[in-house]
Amino acid sequence: MRLALIASLRYAIRQPFAGGLEAHTWQLATGLAARGHEVHVYAGAGSDPRLDVRGVRPLPPLSESARQDVSMPADHFLAEHHSYLQLMLGLAADTTYDLVHNNSLHYLPVAMADALPAPVLTTLHTPPTPWLESALDINRTSGQHFAAVSDHTARMWEHCVPAPHVIRNGVDLSLWRPGPGGGPPVWSGRVVPEKGPVPAILAARAAGTGLRLVGPCPDRDYFRTEVEPLLGGAVEYVGHLDHTALAALVGSASVAVVTPCWDEPYGLVVAEALACGTPVAGFARGALPEIVDDTCGVLVEPGDVSGLADAIRAAARLDRGAVRLRAETTCAVERMVDGYEGLYRSVVS
């Protein structure tokens, strides 16, 4: 098939990835291309050149007169709106695609889906947002289809997207390989409040295990005021790593600590940890209970730092072979690509 994959334009699709959405887009694009599909990725500047990336027109410079308008929105909002508008207008005039897969979080690919000659599939990566809900209210055509990354996410959307296909995210098991474990627990992800690095640090200190934190810091003020004061001793921030280095670090850890402070739609860091044979200690929130069972991790009530400290110690005693097996049966990237490939064929036919 000839496929257009609309990515998030806020961050480039390249390693080290800004987050799970970018990693998912890269995995899906490369997996589909490896199966012989022609995949054009519409993504931001600086994306991985190994992808067949189609550039998106940036916002042209605005005049000083236009910038004097007191109702002008934030620059990043206007830039994204302009880029997605140009993209969708271009796809509306392109009759060569079999299917357009919207893998972004923006409202315009949903609102303008019926203008495209090809069917549009949107993957729901987050809980409902005002912009996406309003776009769905504008456009409820039969030419639009939906997938969700977990049963939990599907339930969150069921009031306006009945019965989306559930296709869970996957990781490359040949890259995320079993490691020896035994090292300090690891916390990975974007260092932002909703990902919960602070309770992870507090629980690790209470457990006496130390902690290594890794990931991008898009909110430097938050890192400086909330996270950095808690570092020191056996708790350290090791930076933002590419997948090869991150897989080695996660595989060397005794436990992966996962502490969502929001309804995590999937939790790619969980799949990455399980693939490395590293058991999970975390908060039972969002989709985590779908992925983590008692063979591969210990979950506690969200926000329970004391319980999480106990969970860190308990998870470290789990069998790493059983943890890897859980990844092989639930989190393999091949299962994800199979799911999307089958859904594409169903939609196109």
UniProtKB/TrEMBL annotation:
Annotated Glycosyltransferase subfamily 4-like N-terminal domain residues: 19-174
Keyword Glycosyltransferase in annotation: yes
Keyword Transferase among UniProt keywords: yes
Keywords (A to Z) from UniProt: Glycosyltransferase, Transferase
A GO molecular function held by the record: glycosyltransferase activity
InterPro entries assigned to the protein according to its UniProt record, in alphabetical order: Glyco_trans_1, Glyco_trans_4-like_N
UniProt organism field: Actinokineospora bangkokensis
Residue ranges constituting the Glycosyl transferase family domain according to the UniProt record: 188-316
Protein name in UniProt: Glycosyl transferase family 1
